Amino acid sequence: MHWFTGLFLFFLALVTILRLYLARRQIDSVREHRDEVPKPFAEDITLADHQKAADYSAARVRLGMLDTVVDTLVLLGWTIAGGLGLVLGFWGGLGLNAVVAGTAAGISVFFIVSLLSLPLSAYSTFTIEARFGFNRTTLGTFLGDLVKGWLLMALLGGPLIAAILWLMDQAGSKWWLYAWVVWTSFTLLLTWAYPTFIAPIFNKFTPLADEQLKQRIEQLMIRCGFRSKGIFVMDGSRRSSHGNAYFTGLGNNKRIVFFDTLINRLEPAEVEAVLAHELGHFRLNHVRKRMLLSMAIGLAGLALLGWLTLQPWFYSALGVVQASAAAALLLFIFVLPVFTFVFTPLSSWLSRRHEFEADAYAVAQSDASLLAIALVKLYRDNATTLTPDSLHSLFYDSHPPAPVRVARLQQIAGNA
User: Fold this and answer.
1) What is the pTM of this model?
2) Which of 165, 170, 178, 249 is spaced 20 to 30 Å from 238 by Cα?
3) 246 beta partners
4) What order do you get walking across the sheet with 231-234 strand by strand?
5) Other CB atoms closer than 10 Å to residue 302's CB: what's the count?
């Protein structure tokens, strides 16, 4: 066995065991506290709602454990068992141009990955989400979203893969630098285009009709120095009863979006507090910082790939006999997450820090107690667990745990 094969298998086993261990801790934590609502929430969340959240969280985590095992087996199939080599060999044997064959192989692989994940995705939507009263997705909508996703993958991902493969073959030893420029430009263009051209393919967006709420939001945006292309309500209830809000886009193409489910559940002042939090991310440059960090990581990753393409063992140790630009790119995409999983807590910590900063900004623009009330309603309606495991949260939670976040806001409100 090649040393890199052993290293890959070691890290894959380590990550799989760690993911399963964290999931088990999360299930144990929510079950242990299932029969008592935490004191800070006792007046606002009933025991029945708390138990529903515990059961819902446990069901989703159990499905995640199965997904972890399936992901591991699929990854072994693509690499050590030679799956990638078979797909690359099929397209390469048709006598096509290397870039065309590599692009077709890449799209085929991602299409197969999507098909393999379909059973668990369908089970999550039509069994777990339905069991807890969240699912509103019809089979037609589910299949329509799937086909639309495949078409977008081919139409958008195909040219990007082709451009990178062409650079890998034709741009010399510094191809990875040019590829980074292409990838960065593509990401910025996609971020700019998403609210206007891509999101409407899946959902309907209508201008906010509530004049009183619209006035509050416009005044808030003036205070925050935020300009957008409009305030829109998305038909989130078409697929799920979960509620959310976000702003999207780039430059002069930014939009504020509310799920219709959120608008129907919160009072106008509470909606304003939630939006103040979202605008905090904008005013504190969180989006820009994350994009710059992503670009820096992307540059480092492509530089590493540039070195790996020259190492024969990188291919043979991972089940690919014939080295090629497409083989290197696909192997890198599949294998990199195995070695970078240990850095997940750093990413989650940064995200939670930004959430605390956005909360502080929201408090300065609205009211801490209103934001706390809005969050508690969202936790209740979305069946968010109030008793997560601390280690699981350290790895996975992009937002501060509910008790920590609400306690902090209540303390600020009390001091005020």
Assistant:
1) 0.92
2) 249
3) 257
4) 205-207, 231-234, 255-259, 245-248
5) 20
